[in-house]
Write a structure and sequence with these properties.
The chain has 314 residues and is an all-alpha fold. It contains 13 helices and two strands. The chain is globular, with a radius of gyration of 19 Å. The chain starts with 6 loop residues before the first helix and ends with a helix. The N terminus is likely disordered.
């Protein structure tokens, strides 16, 4: 059973984030017309792609009423392992595929602990966030992994262009449509909404809740690992500190896009809009010369407002 918002809250959920994005575009363009230059827009798309991939996976988790604080650490560990395999001489494509598989496994571990262990998602993923980050530091000895190689295909993943668009943005769009179809047009998506709406009723109706949750956390881990591959390609190195605070940006994007933290309500398109809002804020404040210290204040305020709006809707 899919839960849909109705009334004024439903209108805000559908159109409010998009209107906010349009208004933000207008305000920043008025303050600095260079914001709308094609090169800057392409740069904005490249910058937002990593957060978008993580946020898409986070959407499924939050729709079930869960949370995942470990995605940034999954990104770091999977990308470090990818880079290590490439430095050892493994074909870059195979290394990326293995890294993505490892990201999925880390997500599945989260899902098993949450569903089978009957533990709170916040506690589970807080613990695994620390564990995965620690393993990354152990594996890298706290140092960046460089000398990855000059594979043209690997370089294309983070720095290339396809039909005039940054490849990371193309990957973001492809991922969006695949996951949009999965969430909105399949029984898996309907089960995701049902679990978030009423988990107990979902169990009674025959939905294998634990299995769905494990799959969803595995999906989130997969998306984080794909984002890690793009980031590694873009930097041409794997940083042990990569992905720090990325989970906060992803959660903020999901909530800004209208998905309820209590679960059962939300849309993937809203998450995409939320990602663009966060990315536009970052890009616009950089263009306007806003201090990075003040940028943190603004982003924190935006997250707080989003959560307050979510509470009001609930």
């Amino acid at each position: 059973m899919k839960i849909e918002a109705t009334g004024k809250s439903g209108i805000w959920q559908k159109f409010g984030p998009l209107l906010a994005l349009i208004l933000l575009f207008i305000v920043i363009t008025v303050l600095n017309p260079s914001f709308m230059e094609p090169n800057n827009i392409l740069n904005l798309l490249r910058q937002t792609s990593i957060n978008a991939l993580i946020a898409f996976g986070m959407t499924f988790i939050i729709l079930t009423g869960g949370i995942d604080l470990s995605v940034g650490s999954i990104l770091a560990l999977s990308s470090a392992l990818m880079a290590g395999m490439m430095v050892s001489g493994l074909d870059p494509i195979l290394a990326i595929l293995v890294g993505i598989l490892l990201g999925a496994i880390m997500g599945v571990i989260n899902g098993i602990l949450v569903s089978k262990g009957k533990m709170a998602p916040f506690i589970v993923t807080l613990a695994t966030m620390t564990i995965f980050r620690g393993l990354t530091l152990v594996y890298t000895d706290g140092k960046p992994i460089t000398g990855i190689g000059d594979s043209e295909m690997f370089q294309m993943l983070g720095r290339g262009y396809f039909l005039g668009l940054p490849v990371p943005a193309v990957v973001m769009v492809i991922a969006f449509f695949i996951l949009w179809f999965l969430l909105h047009k399949t029984s898996f998506g309907r089960k995701t909404y049902a679990i978030g709406g009423n988990e107990r009723a979902s169990r009674i109706s025959g939905i294998k809740v634990d299995r769905v949750k494990v799959a969803i956390y595995g999906l989130a881990g997969t998306m984080a690992a794909i984002a890690g591959a793009i980031l590694t390609s873009r930097l041409n190195s794997a940083q042990p500190t990569a992905g720090q605070s990325y989970e906060m940006d992803a959660i903020a994007a999901v909530v800004l896009g209208g998905t309820s933290l209590s679960g059962g309500k939300g849309r993937l398109f809203g998450t995409l809009v939320g990602v663009l809002i966060i990315g536009t804020l970052n890009n616009g404040m950089n263009l306007l010369g806003v201090s990075s210290f003040y940028q943190q204040v603004v982003k924190g305020a935006v997250i707080l407002i989003a959560v307050l709006l979510d509470r009001k809707k609930s």
